[in-house]
Amino acid sequence: GAVVSQHPSWVICKSGTSVKIECRSLDFQATTMFWYRQFPKQSLMLMATSNEGSKATYEQGVEKDKFLINHASLTLSTLTVTSAHPEDSSFYICSAIEPPGSNQPQHFGDGTRLSIL
Amino acid sequence: QQQVKQSPQSLIVQKGGISIINCAYENTAFDYFPWYQQFPGKGPALLIAIRPDVSEKKEGRFTISFNKSAKQFSLHIMDSQPGDSATYFCAARKHGSRLTFGEGTQLTVNP
Questions:
Q1: Helix (H, G, I), strand (E, B) or coil at A70
Q2: Which of A7, A24, B54, B72 has the least CB density, counted as fewest CB within 10 Å?
Q3: Contact B2/B21 with Cβ under 8 angstroms?
Q4: Distance between CA A54 and CA B107 in Å, rounded?
Q5: Is B82 helix (H, G, I), strand (E, B) or coil?
Q6: Mutate which of A49, A106, A115 to disrupt the B interface (most B C-beta within 10 Å)?
């Protein structure tokens, strides 16, 4: 079945560091990918929609200069958390939607646990 | 218009029992209704999905029941197993748009 690979799965770094998270669709081309943030025992919160070859669309309240998204190819999107601070610690999950077809299922990566010290 | 309300928030079921999770939506433009299963520390995994032109879809022990007039859909897990213990999210989407998620249900299946 369709698989979305996310890397790294866990990052611990010092405050002020920039962290890059990669999201790859392994067996389909994804023109659209999504980045979510999830707090403990809560639902997924959409941060931004990433379209291949164009600028990402950010949800209200999400700082685009803090969370840089690049979707340079049909199988890769990256999220860079710039100058990370402890309040950015969270579980970040990417997602990719299958190409137009019957249902266009949306698949998720296994998430990245980001801990800022 | 974009809300999806999910209940219950948590559910405890005995092994072999039926787990039922319900969702209600408001936006009649939604045309795709998936359910996701999430284990701790993992991303959500697509479990089963339905379109509003059918009232029921079954895959193994998992069944979605869909009531278009009531704007409700539910997930039934038959013969629930301890390995089914996870958080379940319903979601809804209209064509070309993003998923709207329910709040999640934490299911515990006791041995």
A1: strand
A2: B54
A3: no
A4: 40
A5: helix
A6: A106
Nearest to B90 by CA among B17, B30, B28: B30
Strands B105-110, B10-14: pairing is: parallel
Segment B2-10 mean pLDDT: 92
| pLDDT tens string B40-77 | 999 999 999 999 999 999 999 999 999 999 999 999 99
SS3 A69: strand
The token duo for B37 is 């299963």
DSSP B104: -
Q: What is the pLDDT at residue A104? A: 85
Residues in chain B: 111
Q: Which residues of A touch B97 (CB under 8 A)?
A: none
